[in-house]
Task: structure prediction
Amino acid sequence: MLIVMRPDASDEQIRQVMERVRAMGLNPEPVPGAQRTAVCVLGNRGPVDAELFENLPGVSQCIRVTRPYKLVSRETHPENTVVTVNGVAFGGPGMFAIIAGPCAVESRDQVFRVAEALASRGIRLFRAGAFKPRTSPYAFQGLGEAALALLVEVRAQFGLAIVTEAIDHENFEIVEQAVDVVQIGARNMQNFSLLRRAGKSGKPVLLKRGLSATIEELLMAAEYIMAGGNRQVILCERGVRTFADHTRNTLDLSAIPVVKKLSHLPIIADPSHAAGKAEFVPPLALAARGVGADGLMIEVHPEPEKALSDGAQSLRLDQFDVLLAQLVAMQR
Ligand code: PEP
Ligand code: MN
Result:
């Protein structure tokens, strides 16, 4: 249940409502909004009696939250959540955020080259994996801590915010300390201990949809992070597995308007991991923008044919330039 306070409710009245929720053995979570604060009641197994709250001073109304994800639901928070990183507002009105960079940090030369090129094109968020979740244990696993150190240097040198993945609980802390946005990858979308740890983080989290996750599962995964206290969650549609094998995954474009209806969280699209082939990345990127995505994550590599991972889907810089121009043209 959501207890909506009146716009003029005092802090003391909000505190009293939260006290009453606690006295029932439940967990009150304040949800500040533009007009008024609401208190979300968490931990109840059945319906909560609205009458217990409706007559308390400062309470405007009690609303039943019908979705299993409560903090993530638009019922709880009607306005869009805006997550701002390095001046880029994910979910901000009229904003379109772009995260770009190679699949992985491969060497100092590679990562500096591409970071410099992207920064000079106005990109403010740089992605590159340090710890890579690979299907084969024999494939390149990422440079690990050495890569994080290079990413810290990239941030200092080019003013780029860093987005990189934490693949397990053990390395979450070192990733969190080094980067600006912690990514939770598709394969870990339901790694509940990792989600709980991300909930304790002060850094924004980019949560990618699992390979076969429903929208409800994606939103419940985000709920784990929000229930831990971290409100800065950005969702990412990166394609799901279907019978179709003409692309690596099937970019579920419909997920974007559906998520935006159900949740207040920003959602971006990753057409690179969906397409698996560079030539299909730009049209899917434009389509994602067309259906209302709040931004994109695009893999870019200075020499894709030499990439140690995901070269086939990585755009060269000249291809990325064409896409940027097309995105700008779409805005007009
Ligand atoms: C990535 O972004 O580098 C990645 C591994 O993506 P996903 O988890 O979507 O496969
Ligand atoms: Mn990749």
Q: What stands out?
A: The two ends are 42 Å apart (CA to CA). The mean pLDDT is 96.
